Amino acid sequence: MTAQAPGWYAAGLGHVWLPYTQMKTVTPPLPVARTEGTRIHLADGRVLIDGIASWWTACHGYNHPHIRAAATRQLEQLPHVMFGGLVQEPALTLARRLAALLPGDLSRVFFSDSGSVSVEIAMKMATQYFLNRGVTGKGKFLSFRHGYHGDTIGTMAVCDPDEGMHSLFTDLLPRHFIADLPVDDESAAAFDTVLDAHGDEIAGILVEPLVQGAGGMKFHDAAVLRRLRAAADRIGALLIFDEIFVGFGRTGTMFACEAAGVVPDIVTLSKALTGGTMALAATVATTRVFDAFWDDRASAALMHGPTYMGNALACAVANASLDLFEREPRLDQVRAIEGWLRARLPQCRDLPGVVDVRVKGAIGVVQLDRIGDLNALKRAFVEAGVWVRPFGDIVYLTPAFTVTEDEVDILTGAIRKVLAAR
Ligand SMILES: *Cc1c(COP(=O)(O)O)cnc(C)c1O
Protein backbone atom coordinates (compact mmCIF):
# COMPACT_ATOMS: atom_id res chain seq x y z
CA MET A 1 0.00 0.00 0.00
CA THR A 2 0.94 3.60 -0.46
CA ALA A 3 1.39 6.45 1.96
CA GLN A 4 -2.26 7.47 1.55
CA ALA A 5 -3.50 4.33 3.35
CA PRO A 6 -6.17 5.49 5.80
CA GLY A 7 -5.71 5.08 9.54
CA TRP A 8 -8.33 2.36 9.85
CA TYR A 9 -6.36 0.23 7.39
CA ALA A 10 -3.17 -0.10 9.40
CA ALA A 11 -5.05 -0.27 12.70
CA GLY A 12 -7.48 -3.01 11.61
CA LEU A 13 -5.66 -5.15 9.09
CA GLY A 14 -3.84 -7.13 11.74
CA HIS A 15 -7.17 -8.20 13.20
CA VAL A 16 -9.05 -9.60 10.21
CA TRP A 17 -8.77 -13.05 8.68
CA LEU A 18 -9.40 -12.83 4.94
CA PRO A 19 -11.30 -15.36 2.77
CA TYR A 20 -9.47 -18.13 0.91
CA THR A 21 -6.18 -16.52 1.82
CA GLN A 22 -2.75 -17.56 3.00
CA MET A 23 -2.40 -14.59 5.32
CA LYS A 24 1.41 -14.86 5.43
CA THR A 25 2.02 -14.44 1.71
CA VAL A 26 -1.08 -12.52 0.64
CA THR A 27 -0.70 -9.35 -1.38
CA PRO A 28 -2.18 -6.75 0.99
CA PRO A 29 -5.86 -6.09 0.19
CA LEU A 30 -6.76 -2.72 -1.33
CA PRO A 31 -8.63 -0.21 0.85
CA VAL A 32 -11.85 0.88 -0.89
CA ALA A 33 -13.27 4.33 -0.29
CA ARG A 34 -16.51 3.96 -2.27
CA THR A 35 -18.24 2.21 -5.13
CA GLU A 36 -20.41 3.58 -7.94
CA GLY A 37 -21.85 1.79 -10.96
CA THR A 38 -19.11 -0.44 -12.33
CA ARG A 39 -16.34 1.47 -10.54
CA ILE A 40 -14.42 0.73 -7.37
CA HIS A 41 -12.79 3.87 -5.95
CA LEU A 42 -9.69 3.06 -3.93
CA ALA A 43 -8.62 5.09 -0.92
CA ASP A 44 -5.53 6.29 -2.77
CA GLY A 45 -7.64 7.83 -5.54
CA ARG A 46 -7.24 5.10 -8.16
CA VAL A 47 -10.43 3.88 -9.81
CA LEU A 48 -10.86 0.28 -11.03
CA ILE A 49 -13.40 -0.97 -13.57
CA ASP A 50 -15.02 -3.98 -11.94
CA GLY A 51 -15.07 -7.09 -14.13
CA ILE A 52 -16.60 -9.48 -11.61
CA ALA A 53 -19.23 -7.47 -9.72
CA SER A 54 -18.20 -8.65 -6.27
CA TRP A 55 -18.54 -12.38 -6.88
CA TRP A 56 -21.24 -11.66 -9.50
CA THR A 57 -23.69 -10.20 -6.97
CA ALA A 58 -23.82 -6.54 -8.06
CA CYS A 59 -25.82 -7.15 -11.24
CA HIS A 60 -27.18 -3.57 -11.44
CA GLY A 61 -23.81 -1.99 -10.63
CA TYR A 62 -22.98 -0.60 -7.21
CA ASN A 63 -25.10 2.01 -5.37
CA HIS A 64 -28.03 1.90 -7.77
CA PRO A 65 -30.26 4.83 -6.74
CA HIS A 66 -33.44 2.69 -6.72
CA ILE A 67 -31.90 0.14 -4.38
CA ARG A 68 -30.40 2.85 -2.21
CA ALA A 69 -33.78 4.57 -1.88
CA ALA A 70 -35.52 1.30 -0.95
CA ALA A 71 -32.89 0.55 1.69
CA THR A 72 -33.13 4.03 3.19
CA ARG A 73 -36.94 3.89 3.34
CA GLN A 74 -36.93 0.43 4.93
CA LEU A 75 -34.22 1.36 7.42
CA GLU A 76 -36.35 4.18 8.77
CA GLN A 77 -39.48 2.08 9.08
CA LEU A 78 -38.43 -1.45 10.08
CA PRO A 79 -34.90 -2.80 9.60
CA HIS A 80 -35.52 -6.15 11.23
CA VAL A 81 -37.98 -8.00 13.39
CA MET A 82 -37.81 -11.70 14.26
CA PHE A 83 -39.51 -13.98 11.73
CA GLY A 84 -40.78 -16.34 14.43
CA GLY A 85 -44.43 -15.41 14.96
CA LEU A 86 -44.05 -12.07 13.15
CA VAL A 87 -44.04 -11.22 9.46
CA GLN A 88 -43.58 -8.01 7.50
CA GLU A 89 -44.40 -6.70 4.04
CA PRO A 90 -40.95 -6.93 2.37
CA ALA A 91 -40.48 -10.64 3.13
CA LEU A 92 -44.00 -11.67 2.13
CA THR A 93 -43.89 -9.58 -1.03
CA LEU A 94 -40.50 -11.04 -1.96
CA ALA A 95 -41.73 -14.60 -1.38
CA ARG A 96 -44.78 -13.94 -3.58
CA ARG A 97 -42.66 -12.40 -6.33
CA LEU A 98 -40.08 -15.21 -6.32
CA ALA A 99 -42.86 -17.78 -6.51
CA ALA A 100 -44.34 -15.93 -9.49
CA LEU A 101 -40.98 -15.70 -11.26
CA LEU A 102 -39.94 -19.32 -10.77
CA PRO A 103 -41.43 -21.97 -13.08
CA GLY A 104 -43.95 -24.65 -12.16
CA ASP A 105 -45.18 -24.79 -8.60
CA LEU A 106 -41.94 -23.72 -6.94
CA SER A 107 -43.95 -21.65 -4.53
CA ARG A 108 -42.74 -21.94 -0.91
CA VAL A 109 -39.84 -19.73 0.08
CA PHE A 110 -37.65 -20.40 3.11
CA PHE A 111 -35.34 -17.42 3.75
CA SER A 112 -31.83 -17.52 5.16
CA ASP A 113 -28.73 -15.30 5.09
CA SER A 114 -26.19 -17.06 2.89
CA GLY A 115 -25.94 -19.35 -0.07
CA SER A 116 -24.28 -22.15 1.87
CA VAL A 117 -27.03 -22.15 4.45
CA SER A 118 -29.74 -22.16 1.78
CA VAL A 119 -28.16 -25.34 0.36
CA GLU A 120 -27.95 -26.90 3.84
CA ILE A 121 -31.66 -26.15 4.21
CA ALA A 122 -32.40 -27.76 0.83
CA MET A 123 -30.54 -30.87 1.99
CA LYS A 124 -32.48 -30.98 5.26
CA MET A 125 -35.74 -30.47 3.37
CA ALA A 126 -35.00 -33.29 0.94
CA THR A 127 -33.96 -35.72 3.67
CA GLN A 128 -36.96 -35.00 5.87
CA TYR A 129 -39.32 -35.00 2.87
CA PHE A 130 -38.77 -38.76 2.61
CA LEU A 131 -38.85 -39.42 6.37
CA ASN A 132 -42.15 -37.55 6.68
CA ARG A 133 -43.57 -39.78 3.98
CA GLY A 134 -42.34 -42.92 5.75
CA VAL A 135 -39.49 -43.62 3.32
CA THR A 136 -36.29 -44.51 5.18
CA GLY A 137 -32.71 -45.07 4.05
CA LYS A 138 -32.50 -41.99 1.82
CA GLY A 139 -29.81 -40.02 3.64
CA LYS A 140 -27.34 -39.39 0.81
CA PHE A 141 -26.97 -36.89 -2.00
CA LEU A 142 -25.64 -37.23 -5.50
CA SER A 143 -23.63 -34.24 -6.67
CA PHE A 144 -21.00 -33.57 -9.31
CA ARG A 145 -17.30 -33.19 -9.89
CA HIS A 146 -16.35 -29.49 -10.28
CA GLY A 147 -19.48 -28.59 -8.30
CA TYR A 148 -19.47 -25.92 -5.62
CA HIS A 149 -22.29 -25.50 -3.11
CA GLY A 150 -20.70 -23.62 -0.23
CA ASP A 151 -18.13 -23.71 2.55
CA THR A 152 -20.11 -25.03 5.52
CA ILE A 153 -19.46 -28.61 6.55
CA GLY A 154 -22.67 -29.97 5.11
CA THR A 155 -22.16 -28.28 1.75
CA MET A 156 -18.42 -29.03 1.57
CA ALA A 157 -19.36 -32.69 1.53
CA VAL A 158 -21.23 -32.22 -1.77
CA CYS A 159 -18.55 -30.04 -3.40
CA ASP A 160 -15.88 -31.36 -5.75
CA PRO A 161 -13.73 -33.62 -3.53
CA ASP A 162 -10.45 -31.97 -4.55
CA GLU A 163 -11.64 -28.36 -4.55
CA GLY A 164 -13.59 -29.03 -1.36
CA MET A 165 -10.48 -30.54 0.26
CA HIS A 166 -12.31 -33.68 1.28
CA SER A 167 -9.02 -35.41 2.09
CA LEU A 168 -8.17 -32.76 4.69
CA PHE A 169 -11.54 -33.19 6.38
CA THR A 170 -12.13 -36.91 5.89
CA ASP A 171 -13.17 -37.51 9.49
CA LEU A 172 -15.47 -34.52 9.56
CA LEU A 173 -17.40 -34.80 6.33
CA PRO A 174 -20.34 -37.08 5.67
CA ARG A 175 -19.97 -39.25 2.57
CA HIS A 176 -22.13 -38.63 -0.46
CA PHE A 177 -21.94 -39.76 -4.07
CA ILE A 178 -20.00 -37.54 -6.44
CA ALA A 179 -20.21 -38.31 -10.16
CA ASP A 180 -19.12 -36.71 -13.39
CA LEU A 181 -21.94 -34.75 -15.02
CA PRO A 182 -23.61 -37.03 -17.59
CA VAL A 183 -22.57 -35.01 -20.63
CA ASP A 184 -21.77 -37.83 -23.07
CA ASP A 185 -22.30 -41.59 -23.45
CA GLU A 186 -19.39 -42.58 -21.25
CA SER A 187 -20.19 -40.27 -18.36
CA ALA A 188 -23.90 -41.09 -18.70
CA ALA A 189 -23.11 -44.80 -18.34
CA ALA A 190 -20.99 -44.18 -15.22
CA PHE A 191 -23.76 -41.98 -13.84
CA ASP A 192 -26.36 -44.71 -14.45
CA THR A 193 -24.14 -47.20 -12.63
CA VAL A 194 -24.22 -45.01 -9.50
CA LEU A 195 -27.99 -44.65 -9.80
CA ASP A 196 -28.49 -48.42 -10.19
CA ALA A 197 -26.24 -49.25 -7.23
CA HIS A 198 -27.33 -46.51 -4.83
CA GLY A 199 -30.58 -44.99 -6.09
CA ASP A 200 -32.55 -46.03 -3.03
CA GLU A 201 -30.05 -44.29 -0.70
CA ILE A 202 -30.26 -40.95 -2.51
CA ALA A 203 -32.58 -38.19 -1.26
CA GLY A 204 -31.55 -35.61 -3.81
CA ILE A 205 -29.54 -34.92 -6.93
CA LEU A 206 -27.85 -31.55 -6.46
CA VAL A 207 -26.48 -29.54 -9.36
CA GLU A 208 -25.54 -26.02 -10.42
CA PRO A 209 -27.58 -25.78 -13.62
CA LEU A 210 -25.79 -24.75 -16.87
CA VAL A 211 -22.67 -23.36 -15.20
CA GLN A 212 -20.52 -24.84 -12.45
CA GLY A 213 -19.28 -21.53 -11.06
CA ALA A 214 -16.67 -21.50 -8.30
CA GLY A 215 -15.47 -24.97 -9.36
CA GLY A 216 -14.00 -23.52 -12.56
CA MET A 217 -16.80 -21.86 -14.58
CA LYS A 218 -17.53 -25.02 -16.56
CA PHE A 219 -20.57 -25.01 -18.86
CA HIS A 220 -22.96 -27.80 -19.80
CA ASP A 221 -26.02 -28.05 -22.04
CA ALA A 222 -29.63 -27.84 -20.99
CA ALA A 223 -30.04 -31.46 -22.18
CA VAL A 224 -27.94 -32.57 -19.18
CA LEU A 225 -30.52 -31.03 -16.86
CA ARG A 226 -33.35 -32.90 -18.58
CA ARG A 227 -31.37 -36.10 -18.08
CA LEU A 228 -30.99 -35.29 -14.38
CA ARG A 229 -34.73 -34.66 -14.08
CA ALA A 230 -35.42 -38.09 -15.58
CA ALA A 231 -32.77 -39.71 -13.34
CA ALA A 232 -34.23 -38.17 -10.19
CA ASP A 233 -37.69 -39.38 -11.14
CA ARG A 234 -36.37 -42.85 -11.92
CA ILE A 235 -34.77 -43.36 -8.48
CA GLY A 236 -37.42 -41.42 -6.60
CA ALA A 237 -35.09 -38.60 -5.50
CA LEU A 238 -35.65 -34.86 -5.43
CA LEU A 239 -33.90 -32.67 -7.99
CA ILE A 240 -32.22 -29.65 -6.41
CA PHE A 241 -30.94 -26.79 -8.55
CA ASP A 242 -28.38 -24.57 -6.86
CA GLU A 243 -29.05 -21.37 -8.84
CA ILE A 244 -26.99 -19.22 -6.48
CA PHE A 245 -24.51 -18.38 -9.26
CA VAL A 246 -26.72 -18.53 -12.37
CA GLY A 247 -29.97 -17.15 -10.93
CA PHE A 248 -31.18 -13.64 -11.86
CA GLY A 249 -30.18 -13.47 -15.47
CA ARG A 250 -26.50 -14.39 -15.49
CA THR A 251 -26.83 -17.01 -18.27
CA GLY A 252 -29.46 -15.11 -20.27
CA THR A 253 -32.73 -16.30 -18.73
CA MET A 254 -33.96 -15.17 -15.34
CA PHE A 255 -33.22 -18.66 -13.99
CA ALA A 256 -31.16 -21.40 -15.63
CA CYS A 257 -33.94 -23.97 -15.15
CA GLU A 258 -36.07 -22.00 -17.65
CA ALA A 259 -33.51 -22.55 -20.39
CA ALA A 260 -33.83 -26.30 -19.87
CA GLY A 261 -37.60 -26.37 -19.47
CA VAL A 262 -36.99 -28.34 -16.27
CA VAL A 263 -38.79 -27.70 -12.99
CA PRO A 264 -36.61 -28.86 -10.09
CA ASP A 265 -38.16 -29.78 -6.73
CA ILE A 266 -36.05 -27.31 -4.78
CA VAL A 267 -34.11 -24.21 -5.90
CA THR A 268 -31.54 -22.26 -3.93
CA LEU A 269 -30.97 -18.54 -4.58
CA SER A 270 -28.59 -15.95 -3.17
CA LYS A 271 -25.68 -13.96 -4.72
CA ALA A 272 -27.59 -11.51 -7.03
CA LEU A 273 -30.85 -11.80 -5.05
CA THR A 274 -30.30 -8.38 -3.48
CA GLY A 275 -28.31 -6.95 -6.38
CA GLY A 276 -25.16 -7.22 -4.30
CA THR A 277 -26.31 -5.04 -1.44
CA MET A 278 -27.32 -7.28 1.45
CA ALA A 279 -26.74 -10.87 2.56
CA LEU A 280 -29.87 -12.87 1.77
CA ALA A 281 -30.68 -16.33 0.46
CA ALA A 282 -33.77 -18.38 -0.27
CA THR A 283 -34.58 -22.06 -0.57
CA VAL A 284 -37.71 -22.47 -2.69
CA ALA A 285 -39.70 -25.71 -2.67
CA THR A 286 -42.53 -27.04 -4.79
CA THR A 287 -45.98 -27.62 -3.38
CA ARG A 288 -45.29 -31.38 -3.41
CA VAL A 289 -42.22 -30.94 -1.17
CA PHE A 290 -44.00 -28.50 1.13
CA ASP A 291 -47.01 -30.78 1.44
CA ALA A 292 -44.86 -33.52 3.00
CA PHE A 293 -44.30 -31.17 5.95
CA TRP A 294 -47.99 -30.13 6.21
CA ASP A 295 -49.11 -32.44 8.99
CA ASP A 296 -50.78 -32.68 12.39
CA ARG A 297 -47.54 -34.05 13.85
CA ALA A 298 -45.23 -31.31 15.20
CA SER A 299 -42.32 -33.64 14.44
CA ALA A 300 -43.02 -33.31 10.71
CA ALA A 301 -42.13 -29.59 10.79
CA LEU A 302 -38.93 -28.24 9.26
CA MET A 303 -36.81 -27.37 12.30
CA HIS A 304 -34.71 -24.52 11.00
CA GLY A 305 -34.73 -20.77 11.62
CA PRO A 306 -31.79 -18.44 11.16
CA THR A 307 -31.89 -15.52 13.62
CA TYR A 308 -31.98 -12.93 10.85
CA MET A 309 -34.38 -14.96 8.70
CA GLY A 310 -36.49 -12.83 6.34
CA ASN A 311 -34.57 -9.68 7.34
CA ALA A 312 -36.86 -6.82 6.28
CA LEU A 313 -34.04 -4.57 5.08
CA ALA A 314 -32.53 -7.32 2.91
CA CYS A 315 -35.95 -8.31 1.53
CA ALA A 316 -36.80 -4.67 0.69
CA VAL A 317 -33.52 -4.41 -1.18
CA ALA A 318 -34.23 -7.69 -3.01
CA ASN A 319 -37.66 -6.34 -4.02
CA ALA A 320 -35.97 -3.21 -5.36
CA SER A 321 -33.59 -5.44 -7.33
CA LEU A 322 -36.56 -7.31 -8.82
CA ASP A 323 -38.12 -3.93 -9.72
CA LEU A 324 -35.02 -3.18 -11.76
CA PHE A 325 -35.32 -6.47 -13.63
CA GLU A 326 -38.88 -5.38 -14.51
CA ARG A 327 -38.15 -1.74 -15.36
CA GLU A 328 -34.80 -1.98 -17.08
CA PRO A 329 -33.86 -4.31 -19.96
CA ARG A 330 -31.54 -6.53 -17.93
CA LEU A 331 -31.88 -9.71 -20.01
CA ASP A 332 -31.34 -7.71 -23.23
CA GLN A 333 -28.23 -6.28 -21.61
CA VAL A 334 -27.00 -9.80 -20.84
CA ARG A 335 -27.48 -10.72 -24.51
CA ALA A 336 -25.54 -7.62 -25.56
CA ILE A 337 -22.70 -8.42 -23.13
CA GLU A 338 -22.61 -11.97 -24.49
CA GLY A 339 -22.12 -10.53 -27.97
CA TRP A 340 -19.39 -8.12 -26.84
CA LEU A 341 -17.55 -10.93 -25.04
CA ARG A 342 -17.88 -13.28 -28.03
CA ALA A 343 -16.44 -10.61 -30.32
CA ARG A 344 -13.41 -9.91 -28.11
CA LEU A 345 -12.46 -12.70 -25.72
CA PRO A 346 -11.56 -15.29 -28.40
CA GLN A 347 -8.64 -13.00 -29.33
CA CYS A 348 -6.97 -14.52 -26.24
CA ARG A 349 -6.99 -17.97 -27.85
CA ASP A 350 -3.55 -17.55 -29.43
CA LEU A 351 -1.84 -16.35 -26.26
CA PRO A 352 0.68 -18.67 -24.62
CA GLY A 353 -0.84 -21.07 -22.09
CA VAL A 354 -4.48 -20.42 -23.05
CA VAL A 355 -6.30 -23.75 -23.39
CA ASP A 356 -9.91 -22.56 -23.74
CA VAL A 357 -12.04 -19.44 -24.14
CA ARG A 358 -15.77 -19.71 -23.47
CA VAL A 359 -18.73 -17.37 -23.11
CA LYS A 360 -22.26 -17.96 -21.84
CA GLY A 361 -24.57 -15.02 -21.12
CA ALA A 362 -22.68 -12.42 -19.10
CA ILE A 363 -19.89 -14.86 -18.23
CA GLY A 364 -16.57 -14.85 -20.06
CA VAL A 365 -13.83 -17.35 -19.24
CA VAL A 366 -10.22 -17.72 -20.33
CA GLN A 367 -8.81 -21.01 -19.13
CA LEU A 368 -5.03 -21.45 -18.82
CA ASP A 369 -2.90 -24.56 -18.60
CA ARG A 370 -1.66 -23.19 -15.28
CA ILE A 371 -1.76 -19.79 -13.62
CA GLY A 372 1.67 -19.85 -12.01
CA ASP A 373 2.12 -16.76 -9.86
CA LEU A 374 -1.48 -15.94 -8.94
CA ASN A 375 -0.58 -12.92 -6.79
CA ALA A 376 1.48 -11.39 -9.60
CA LEU A 377 -1.40 -11.86 -12.02
CA LYS A 378 -3.86 -10.21 -9.63
CA ARG A 379 -1.47 -7.26 -9.19
CA ALA A 380 -1.06 -6.89 -12.96
CA PHE A 381 -4.83 -6.49 -13.38
CA VAL A 382 -4.95 -3.75 -10.75
CA GLU A 383 -2.06 -2.00 -12.49
CA ALA A 384 -4.09 -2.24 -15.71
CA GLY A 385 -6.95 -0.42 -13.96
CA VAL A 386 -9.39 -3.33 -13.72
CA TRP A 387 -10.70 -5.54 -10.95
CA VAL A 388 -10.30 -9.07 -12.27
CA ARG A 389 -9.56 -11.95 -9.90
CA PRO A 390 -8.24 -15.14 -11.47
CA PHE A 391 -8.60 -18.38 -9.49
CA GLY A 392 -7.79 -22.04 -10.11
CA ASP A 393 -6.76 -22.10 -13.78
CA ILE A 394 -9.12 -19.38 -15.04
CA VAL A 395 -9.41 -15.66 -15.61
CA TYR A 396 -13.07 -14.71 -15.84
CA LEU A 397 -15.48 -11.81 -16.27
CA THR A 398 -18.92 -11.65 -14.63
CA PRO A 399 -19.59 -7.92 -14.89
CA ALA A 400 -22.63 -5.94 -13.81
CA PHE A 401 -25.37 -6.15 -16.47
CA THR A 402 -25.15 -2.35 -16.70
CA VAL A 403 -21.56 -2.51 -17.96
CA THR A 404 -21.01 -0.59 -21.22
CA GLU A 405 -19.42 -1.86 -24.42
CA ASP A 406 -16.47 0.50 -23.84
CA GLU A 407 -15.95 -0.97 -20.38
CA VAL A 408 -16.11 -4.54 -21.73
CA ASP A 409 -13.56 -3.45 -24.30
CA ILE A 410 -11.24 -2.20 -21.54
CA LEU A 411 -11.78 -5.35 -19.45
CA THR A 412 -11.12 -7.80 -22.30
CA GLY A 413 -8.21 -5.66 -23.51
CA ALA A 414 -6.67 -5.78 -20.03
CA ILE A 415 -7.00 -9.57 -19.94
CA ARG A 416 -5.32 -9.85 -23.33
CA LYS A 417 -2.52 -7.48 -22.34
CA VAL A 418 -1.87 -9.06 -18.93
CA LEU A 419 -1.93 -12.64 -20.25
CA ALA A 420 0.33 -11.71 -23.17
CA ALA A 421 2.89 -10.22 -20.77
CA ARG A 422 2.94 -13.33 -18.59
C1 LIG B 1 -21.46 -18.69 -3.87
C2 LIG B 1 -22.16 -19.98 -4.01
C3 LIG B 1 -22.60 -20.71 -2.88
C4 LIG B 1 -22.30 -20.28 -1.47
O1 LIG B 1 -22.87 -19.07 -1.14
P1 LIG B 1 -22.36 -18.27 0.15
O2 LIG B 1 -23.27 -17.11 0.26
O3 LIG B 1 -20.94 -17.90 -0.12
O4 LIG B 1 -22.47 -19.19 1.32
C5 LIG B 1 -23.28 -21.88 -3.11
N1 LIG B 1 -23.54 -22.31 -4.35
C6 LIG B 1 -23.14 -21.64 -5.44
C7 LIG B 1 -23.48 -22.17 -6.79
C8 LIG B 1 -22.43 -20.45 -5.32
O5 LIG B 1 -22.01 -19.79 -6.40
Automatic annotation (TrEMBL):
Enzyme class, UniProt record, top EC level: transferase
Binding site for pyridoxal 5'-phosphate: G115, S116, D242, P306, T307
Entry's EC annotation: 2.6.1.62
Cofactor(s) it depends on: pyridoxal 5'-phosphate
Catalytic activity: (8S)-8-amino-7-oxononanoate + S-adenosyl-L-methionine = S-adenosyl-4-methylsulfanyl-2-oxobutanoate + (7R,8S)-7,8-diammoniononanoate
GO BP field: biotin biosynthetic process
Main location: cytoplasm
Participates in the substrate recognition with KAPA and in a stacking interaction with the adenine ring of SAM (site feature) positions: Y20
Pathways involved: Cofactor biosynthesis; biotin biosynthesis; 7,8-diaminononanoate from 8-amino-7-oxononanoate (SAM route): step 1/1
Keywords: Aminotransferase, Biotin biosynthesis, Cytoplasm, Pyridoxal phosphate, S-adenosyl-L-methionine, Transferase
Localisation: Cytoplasm
Gene Ontology cellular-component terms listed: cytoplasm
UniProt-recorded Gene Ontology molecular function terms: adenosylmethionine-8-amino-7-oxononanoate transaminase activity; pyridoxal phosphate binding
PTM sites of type N6-(pyridoxal phosphate)lysine: K271
Assembly notes: Homodimer.
Similarity-based family: Belongs to the class-III pyridoxal-phosphate-dependent aminotransferase family. BioA subfamily.
Purpose of the protein: Catalyzes the transfer of the alpha-amino group from S-adenosyl-L-methionine (SAM) to 7-keto-8-aminopelargonic acid (KAPA) to form 7,8-diaminopelargonic acid (DAPA). It is the only aminotransferase known to utilize SAM as an amino donor.
PANTHER family linked to this entry: ADENOSYLMETHIONINE-8-AMINO-7-OXONONANOATE AMINOTRANSFERASE
NCBIfam families linked: bioA, PRK05964.1
Name by which UniProt lists this protein: Adenosylmethionine-8-amino-7-oxononanoate aminotransferase
Native species: Zavarzinia aquatilis
